[in-house]
Amino acid sequence: MDLVVINLIDGLVTGLLLFLLSSGLTLIFSMMGVLNFAHASFYMLGAYFAYQISLYVGFWPGLIIAPVLVGVLGALVERYGLRRVHQYGHVPELIFTFGLALLIEEIVQFFWGKNIVPFEEPAALQFALFNIGGNAVPAYKVFMIFVAIAIFLGLLYVLTKTRVGMIIQAALSYPKTVEALGHNVPLIFMGVFGVGTALAGVAGVIAGPVLGTFPGMAFLLGSIVFVTIVIGGLGSLFGALVASLLIGWLTTFAATYNFEFASILTAFGMERPEDLSESYLRDLWVLTLPQIGPILPYLLMVLILVVRPYGLFGKRDA
Question: Does domain 2-255 have CATH number 1.10.3470?
Fold first, then answer.
């Protein structure tokens, strides 16, 4: 039971971290219809900016300043880069964002090198908040959970209860009407893109001390973020949250329990051959659940697309 609780906490941390990344991406896609391949690169920039700031003024100012810098950079990218190629269709957008991701990675390696940098959590949170069955739960993980929940509630409130949120939602479906009412739709697009990249920056700041801050960190999470928003439904903020939690718990539990697929084959009445090299199922006899854990989110995505092609909470095309 203790192991289950620990896995629930670890999966919650992983899932909420994915949500911070996927929420920004799904906001950008909702408004602009752009799948930003460079989104995870802004996550990486958030970690590196916070690391550099922490060298001078500490972790806490970096937590505030780094996402702002990333958001401003994202807004400038939209204004002077993406907006110019947006009119030519989705393929130029994808090429632009893919090239931007490569460029950001090279810039990071140029300034900070290819090795991991010593970005650590603040000293005030370097202790175990409580223990479960002899397993310590760090205070920093609980801090990550509260930050992610606060951001989700803040986004939900802004999008559903404020005038700005109403204008943003209206601009999603009726940009021409919103523009006719006197609102600057391109400015709204730039703001949403900036906020989306800032959310990725927040994820980078709080994840950097735990997952490591190095040039390949964007690549590690880049593909799984797209899987998350596909499962949740493109453009659905609540879907991004549900999908992130599903993936977080799925991968965490899969990595913990050393389940062997040989037991399934045995349950179906099959006998383990003495010489596995002669069996056409030789790979399944030695396969364990932790080995396939990293591909489980992709298998879940395939299953969801078969049952609901528009995702768990996506809207069916008219």
Answer: yes
